[in-house]
Amino acid sequence: MGKTLLLSVIAAATLTSASMIRFETMSAPDLVEIKYGFPLFWLHRQTISITAPVDTWSVQWPSLVVDLVLWFTTSAAIVYALDIGMKTALLFCADKIDRSQGRETQWG
User: Fold this and answer.
1) Does residue 107 sit within a domain?
2) 77 exposed, middle or buried (CB, 10 Å; 0-12, 13-18, 19+)?
3) Prior bond of 29 cis (ω within 30°)
4) Which residues in the chain belong to E strands, given as ranges?
5) pTM, two decimal places
6) Enclosing domain of residue 13
């Protein structure tokens, strides 16, 4: 359980960081804003405003939290499914080896 949780947290942080690859530029005569994130935009960069050129970055905390929760849930489900699949495969292989050697297994 602890390994699954740790892998899920690491995967969620990595996927959230990697989600900054997706960006969208919003451009108007007096505003240029670049939004980063997937599935939600959680990092905004403003480069031009009506008053003068600026370079400000802002984190949209609710979107970041939702993004982290979504990636954590997805990665936890995948890690859990892989863990169960590996255990099932190991039991199947052990049973097959026991049967090939003529030994009775605990499953019948």
Assistant:
1) no
2) exposed
3) no
4) 23-28, 31-36, 43-48, 53-59
5) 0.74
6) 2-96
